[in-house]
UniProtKB/TrEMBL annotation:
Keywords, sorted A to Z: DNA-binding, Transcription, Transcription regulation
Protein name, entry field: Transcriptional regulator
UniProt keyword Transcription, yes or no: yes
A Pfam family hit: GntR
Cited Gene3D superfamilies: Chorismate lyase-like, Winged helix-like DNA-binding domain superfamily/Winged helix DNA-binding domain
Transmembrane segments: none
Coiled coil: none
HTH gntR-type domain span: 24-92
Record flagged with keyword DNA-binding: yes
Amino acid sequence: MAREPETELPAEFFGPLDRSPGAAPLYTQIARKLEGAIAAGTLVAGTRLENEVAMAKRIGLSRPTIRQAIQDLVDKGLLVRRRGIGTQVIQRPVARPVDLTSLYEDLEKSGNPPSTVVLSHRVEAADAEAAEHLGVPIGTPSLHLRRLRLVGSTPLAVLHNVLPAPFTDITADELVSTGLYETLRARGVVFSVAQQRIGAKAADSAEAELLDIDTGSPLLTMNRTALDHSGTIVEWGDHCYRPDLYSFETTLVSR
């Protein structure tokens, strides 16, 4: 994926700094200015900040002061330092309720408009694994999808889905413009129940490249088999998410 250019922040961005006795430390004042710009959307997710040496020179402060300001925002989950990339504004974490909805729908409802890159879209005979998940004979035509879900320019999840024969006509274009579940509902599917398992794993090299993380970084995983109102399996999904940007929420009720 193309790397965002560095953003140079002029001294005027930070305004006059209060150096009087009793004033907040200079690193705190710098951190507050950056945090305010992130909250206001002036510095959007994916923005790369210039390096600490250049920023310190531009503002007229020491490098340790800038380093501490940056570290404060890293600790708050607003910035991230990545080897070979630098310091970058990250997407606010998305907390997803464990409901029978799609990631696309949940992101839209949470005010995080998603975008999709279809990595692969092919119809092929179901192998033993796909057949078992879909409850169909081996060799049955099935649609295999692999997509990258982003919020802004920030990659959030890699989604792998397999669908049975009635839905092999779903096009890649449909999946770019809308979510999978909305596409299925448009074809008359009424979702009823799903079996779901949430876990974790280490990112392989392909996942790491797509999600802009290091190989071996932890990933949140979710496997789901969804059924319609007649009890027929309509899709199986095997997804992985960046845990720094994503979590599942559940409500527990005492019995």
